[in-house]
Amino acid sequence: MPAIVNYLLHLLTAAALVLVFFVIYVRVTPYDEVLLIRQGNCAAALSLGGALIGFSITIASALLHTLGYYEFALWAFGAMVVQVLVFAVTTSLLRMSKDQIEADNRAFGGLLGSISLAIGFVNAGCIS
User: Fold this and answer.
1) Do residues 30 and 98 make contact, with C-beta atoms less than 8 angstroms apart?
2) Residue 128, C-beta contacts closer than 8 angstroms, at least 6 positions apart
3) pTM of this prediction?
4) d(Cα 46, Cα 42) in Å, to the nearest integer?
5) CA distance 102 to 82
6) How far is Cα of residue 85 from the mean position of the Cα atoms in its chain?
7) DSSP assignment, residue 44?
8) Directed axis angle between helix 69-94 and helix 3-28, to 10°?
9) pLDDT tens per residue across span 60-84
């Protein structure tokens, strides 16, 4: 396969995976991040931004460390599952995420975003 086609295939797949992750993530959360962000809620932006960056770090690692397209897609999908599961477990343990995010508690949003980043880095390292 020509290099440009391979590049475009991987780029489009990675972008589609980030979009799918975004859609799943905002449906899993107990609050409407997009609405909250439109209203200027920084806590929601920090939480969602951290989740997107954390997942993207894992996608980048999968792109760098896998041998073929299907292996990349499989690892990326697995990483998506891990990111969503970690969010579910974290918010279950913290029990107050909905109230804290909706109240624009930036410290709490930063914590959720940082946890997502940390898991993204761990996920990325496990793929390498």
Assistant:
1) yes
2) 61, 64, 65
3) 0.92
4) 6
5) 25
6) 11
7) H
8) 20
9) 999 999 988 899 999 999 999 999 9
